[in-house]
Design goal:
- By secondary structure, this protein is α+β, with helices and mostly antiparallel strands.
- It is built from four helices and two strands; from the N terminus they run ααααββ.
- The chain has helices at about 5-15, 20-30, 40-45, 55-65; strands spanning about 70-75, 80-85.
- Strands 1-2 form a two-stranded antiparallel sheet.
- A hairpin with a 2-residue loop joins strand 1 and strand 2 (about 80-85).
- The chain is globular and about 45 Å long.
Length: about 100
Amino acid sequence: MHDQLNFLDQIRSQGYRVTPQRQLILDTLCRLGGHATPAELYQQVRPQMPSLNQATVYRALDFFCELNLATKTEWGGSSVYEIIGAVPHHHLICRRCGY
């Protein structure tokens, strides 16, 4: 499990605010464990924060990538996101079928 408090400290130390939306999306991405699509994240967070929209999820994910907290990978025609772990890993994708 990733240390969400460390991620929140990283955000704050770079001069950014930890909004409730960012915290919920980050917590959910950590809980899902990786390779989550924006749609999957949105489905998970919407019941907890009905006023949150899909654009906010995309903006938060881009923000996390800019701060090197998360990575974005094109996988099977979709963008998937995951928290950057302590140990790097690779994704192998078939050139023929895209998976």
